[in-house]
């Protein structure tokens, strides 16, 4: 099992935008779906408390939100890549992210990385597994499959220290655990390569839910 020895590597980035959104109803055929995936950027500093950003919400807390999915970050570099692939422009919040970043490889973020942003301290907890609501947001049901194949998942973070943050803040990775369990590796292990699943247990910060899941599915 890997230790929590900090890496000497220094990583910094920039918070380009902070986006929040409440729950809305979306009509899908004869059904009405509740979702909080529509996020819009705000211009003020946003309090980060409990398991959320102020003004943000999720429709189904059994699969979204909570302490291990309190904040979702997506890199502007990945949004730009999607623009080249699709011919569409993706502004801040387009992928349902709260934090749009620049200068950090979020696929390479390690489970347990800690970010100092504004007056908050956030910890990378897990990758993103896309669900059908991403297809609703993109108005393309096939986008979920494309996202699963692209291997650009972003990262979910928990809140270690409450505070506030805003666009233009620096992102300083103040702690890197001594393992190579990245968001991309977790994404690959859960969706494409079961042989990688035992490696997830090398990350001490991996949520208990996923530890139990790996024990059943490795």
TrEMBL record:
<dbReference type="InterPro" id="IPR005302">
    <property type="entry name" value="MoCF_Sase_C"/>
</dbReference>
<dbReference type="GO" id="GO:0030170">
    <property type="term" value="F:pyridoxal phosphate binding"/>
</dbReference>
<protein>
    <recommendedName>
        <fullName>MOSC domain-containing protein</fullName>
    </recommendedName>
</protein>
<dbReference type="GO" id="GO:0003824">
    <property type="term" value="F:catalytic activity"/>
</dbReference>
<dbReference type="InterPro" id="IPR011037">
    <property type="entry name" value="Pyrv_Knase-like_insert_dom_sf"/>
</dbReference>
<dbReference type="Pfam" id="PF03473">
    <property type="entry name" value="MOSC"/>
</dbReference>
<dbReference type="InterPro" id="IPR052353">
    <property type="entry name" value="Benzoxazolinone_Detox_Enz"/>
</dbReference>
<dbReference type="GO" id="GO:0030151">
    <property type="term" value="F:molybdenum ion binding"/>
</dbReference>
<feature type="domain" description="MOSC">
    <location>
        <begin position="40"/>
        <end position="174"/>
    </location>
</feature>
């Amino acid at each position: 099992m890997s230790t929590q020895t900090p890496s000497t590597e220094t990583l910094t980035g920039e918070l380009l935008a902070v986006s929040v959104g409440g729950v809305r109803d979306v009509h899908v055929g004869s059904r009405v779906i509740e979702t909080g995936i529509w996020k819009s950027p705000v211009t003020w500093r946003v309090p980060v408390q409990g398991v959320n950003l102020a003004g943000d919400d999720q429709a189904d807390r059994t699969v979204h939100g909570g302490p291990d999915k309190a904040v979702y970050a997506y890199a502007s570099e990945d949004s730009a890549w999607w623009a080249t692939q699709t011919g569409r422009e993706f502004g801040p919040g387009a992928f349902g992210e709260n934090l749009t970043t620049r200068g950090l490889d979020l696929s390479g973020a390690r489970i347990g990385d800690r970010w100092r942003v504004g007056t908050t301290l956030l910890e990378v907890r897990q990758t993103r597994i896309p669900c059908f609501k991403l297809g609703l947001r993109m108005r393309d049901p096939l986008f979920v499959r494309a996202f699963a194949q692209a291997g650009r998942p972003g990262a979910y973070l928990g809140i270690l220290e409450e505070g506030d943050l805003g666009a233009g803040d620096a992102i300083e990775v103040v702690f890197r655990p001594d393992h190579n369990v990245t968001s991309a590796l977790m994404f690959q292990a859960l969706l494409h390569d079961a042989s990688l699943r035992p490696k997830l247990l090398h990350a001490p910060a991996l949520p208990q839910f996923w530890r139990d899941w790996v024990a059943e599915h490795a």
